[in-house]
């Protein structure tokens, strides 16, 4: 079996993908839109030592395997690896086909891969210091890099596309405005935005609704960028972003809390403490809007320590089902008033980010290095496939902290608030 045929075996012979290897071998249909080029024996070593998703990812990130063509098209074609990885029996078959020599080569993972042993020295999963390091790994890449990928909104969460032809900026505005209307924001209210990122929701609430907002993030680079944006917008009297763990917020009696893209970093065991803390920050009648990625049911793994996403993108990330999140919120006193799944919107959001990265590819490589740029190209394109095929979802859940007599303050038919 040639090297090209071995790689074809991993991806699956049904995939419409061509292969070419450094030994001159080729395989796959001649008219396939994407070519995988195996450039060196180190790619074989990565695949032999981690057959399937991880071996292919390491070889690509390290530059020993190239993709010629659209990354989304490739990952969509090889969805059995992208979404499910290979069964153990197939991994063993691939290792046997490669032989002993690649197994004996010493090839360390690319430097972009997180060493979980290093994280473990910072405490158990979701201890404050360890969470800070995990957030630093992903979010403190480069503000300039994020500006190229995310666009002017600097919103790194699912947008809401109000119509087919909406731009990314229009969709991010629509997302923040949808959150604001679900929360019932009005001038003079106080909002706490936890995991605020670069301050998109903070600025939107202050500028569009006259709300006094406190945002907190574990990323120092995000906080510095957000504070500068607030000052440039002339909103310093209303808005503030702090480099702070949400658990260290001392103020209370907020009218509303928004959590947009934070819950994925919390962890199942910490959910009661998380929702309980946010509940305690609200006045009676206050609302929480929780916006996060979820898994489609309660039976999939919540945490895949050995997967590409956990090792390269979101260390210690955990996804829960929307049912579990709602139950946790209810058990801590929230009344659930609204819930919706926006997974198709996240697929579109990611498509826009992928296009932005491609448009700034050379600049991105110069800014963060080829390895990190490749991690992002692979991760975002794979996520498009995941959201399209219902491997992952995105839910917004609205909860209310009821008043003493059970009053919610929610209109009988809030059609304007929640279109």
From TrEMBL:
SUPFAM superfamilies: S-adenosyl-L-methionine-dependent methyltransferases (SSF53335). It holds the Pfam family CMAS. The keyword Methyltransferase applies. Gene3D superfamilies: Vaccinia Virus protein VP39 (3.40.50.150). Keywords: Lipid metabolism, Methyltransferase, S-adenosyl-L-methionine, Transferase. CDD domains: AdoMet_MTases. PANTHER family: CYCLOPROPANE-FATTY-ACYL-PHOSPHOLIPID SYNTHASE. Belongs to the CFA/CMAS family. This is Cyclopropane-fatty-acyl-phospholipid synthase. It comes from Sphaerisporangium rufum.
């Amino acid at each position: 079996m040639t090297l090209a045929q071995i790689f074809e075996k991993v991806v699956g012979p049904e995939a419409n993908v061509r292969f070419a290897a450094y030994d001159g071998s080729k395989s796959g249909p001649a008219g396939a839109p994407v070519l995988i080029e195996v450039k060196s024996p180190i790619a074989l070593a990565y695949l032999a030592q981690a057959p399937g998703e991880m071996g292919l990812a390491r070889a690509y990130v390290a530059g020993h395997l190239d993709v010629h063509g659209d990354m989304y098209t490739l990952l969509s074609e090889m969805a059995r690896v992208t979404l499910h990885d290979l069964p153990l029996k197939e991994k063993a078959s691939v290792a046997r086909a490669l032989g002993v020599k690649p197994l004996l080569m010493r090839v360390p993972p690319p430097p972009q891969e997180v060493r979980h042993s290093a994280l473990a020295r910072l405490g158990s999963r979701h201890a404050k210091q360890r969470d800070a390091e995990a957030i630093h790994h992903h979010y403190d890449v480069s503000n300039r890099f994020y500006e190229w990928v995310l666009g002017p909104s600097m919103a790194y969460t699912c947008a809401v596309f109000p119509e087919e032809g909406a731009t990314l900026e229009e969709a991010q505005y629509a997302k923040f405005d949808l959150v604001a209307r679900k929360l019932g924001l009005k001038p003079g209210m106080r909002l706490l935005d936890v995991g605020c990122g670069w301050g998109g929701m903070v600025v939107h609430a202050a500028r569009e609704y006259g709300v006094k907002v406190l945002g907190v993030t574990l990323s120092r680079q995000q906080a510095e960028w957000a504070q500068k944006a607030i000052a440039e917008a002339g909103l310093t009297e209303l808005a503030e972003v702090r480099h702070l763990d949400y658990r260290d917020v001392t103020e209370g009696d907020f009218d509303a809390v928004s959590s947009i893209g934070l819950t994925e970093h919390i962890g199942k065991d910490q959910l009661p403490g998380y929702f309980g803390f946010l509940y305690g920050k609200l006045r009676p009648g206050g609302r929480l809007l929780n916006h996060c990625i979820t898994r489609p049911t309660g039976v999939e793994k919540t945490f895949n320590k050995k997967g590409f996403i956990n090792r390269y993108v979101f260390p210690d990330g955990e996804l829960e089902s929307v049912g579990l999140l709602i139950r946790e919120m209810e058990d801590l006193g929230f009344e659930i008033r609204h819930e919706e799944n926006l997974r198709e919107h996240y697929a579109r959001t990611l498509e826009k980010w992928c296009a932005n990265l491609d448009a700034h590819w050379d600049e991105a490589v110069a800014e963060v290095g080829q390895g990190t740029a490749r991690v992002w190209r692979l991760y975002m394109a794979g996520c498009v496939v995941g959201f399209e095929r219902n491997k992952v979802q995105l839910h917004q859940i609205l909860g209310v902290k009821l008043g003493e007599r059970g009053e919610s303050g929610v209109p009988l038919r809030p059609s304007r608030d929640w279109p």
